[in-house]
Design goal:
The protein has two domains: 98 residues, 60s Ribosomal Protein L30, Chain: A; 155 residues, SPOUT methyltransferase, trefoil knot domain (Alpha/beta knot, 3-Layer(aba) Sandwich), CATH 3.40.1280.10. It is 35% helix and 22% strand. It has eleven helices and twelve strands. A seven-stranded parallel sheet has the order 8-7-6-11-9-12-10, sandwiched between helices. The model has no long low-confidence stretch (mean pLDDT 93).
């Protein structure tokens, strides 16, 4: 029978809170917090090792945990009050896990014959990153490269907003210089989204090896990327506001590339 934890002062509970709040602590312990049945299943399917599972008996039983997961992780039963303190959203199924994250490097990344990638420079908002990862999963892109990241890819808010797609995609964090050099070496044509561009996105040919490069909503791409991409493209807009949310813009560009490829790759 799982150990029953009722105090928020329990060292295990205090550690989960620490892992949720601090990126440095996640890296130090090499542990991340995963909330929800679907998210934990996707993490396991990606090859991640789940070290411990915490469940709320008022929402889900230990028998259901065992039925859902064939894992050797330690299992702990937590009170409803503790679960409410730990859970980011009330709609999850009463389960939280700690897992060992997998960090992929550019040198380890293998590509299909005609790859399609998303590159994000200095992405900062976990919600935007999560939404883009959902697009990347839907489009089945080869990888999402985050250059000069300002947010941890395993931030609990990224996991939550991506509904687990941080585990279904191959995500690489690196410097802009490393990404630019690697893309050139691989012969992948880069398309930078820019409000100052004159070429409309749908007039470009994305049928060859391509990378869609996106900047932040506040400032767009830096000169570092604008000077080192093959093409600059713009999404034509007719309203009073001259910019879309970066996650929506990414989806528009990626699915134009998919359309040109007849949704085959």
């Amino acid at each position: 029978m799982a150990e029953y934890i009722t105090s928020t002062q329990n060292p295990k509970i205090k550690n989960i809170l620490k892992l949720q709040q601090k990126s440095a602590e996640r890296k130090k312990q090499n542990l991340i917090v995963i909330e929800g049945l679907r998210e934990i299943k996707l993490a396991l399917q990606s090859g991640m090792q789940v070290k411990s599972i915490y469940f709320c008996r008022d929402i889900i039983s230990e028998e259901e945990i065992i039925k859902h997961f064939e894992v050797t992780a330690s299992i702990f039963d937590i009170s409803h009050d503790i679960y409410k303190k730990l859970a980011y959203r009330g709609s999850t199924e009463g389960i939280i896990a700690l897992g060992e994250p997998k960090y992929l490097t550019l040198n380890e990344l293998t590509l299909r014959r005609n790859p399609l990638l998303i590159v994000l420079e200095s992405v900062e908002k976990p919600g935007n990153l999560g939404a883009i990862l959902r697009t990347a999963d839907a489009a089945h892109v080869d990888a999402v490269i985050i250059s000069d990241p300002l947010t941890d890819i395993y931030n609990p808010n990224v996991i939550r907003s991506s509904i687990g797609c941080v585990f279904t995609n191959r995500v690489i964090a690196c410097s802009s210089e490393e990404a630019i050099s690697w893309l050139r070496k691989k012969g992948i044509k880069t398309y930078a989204a820019s409000l100052t561009a004159t070429q409309k996105y749908h007039e470009k040919d994305f049928t060859g090896p391509s990378a869609i490069v996106m900047g932040t909503e506040a400032n767009g791409l830096t000169g570092k990327w604008l000077k080192n991409t093959d093409e600059q493209i713009i999404i034509p807009m007719s309203g009073a506001i001259d910019s879309l949310n970066v996650s929506i813009s990414t989806a528009i560009l990626v699915f134009e590339a998919k359309r040109q490829r007849n949704f085959k790759q």
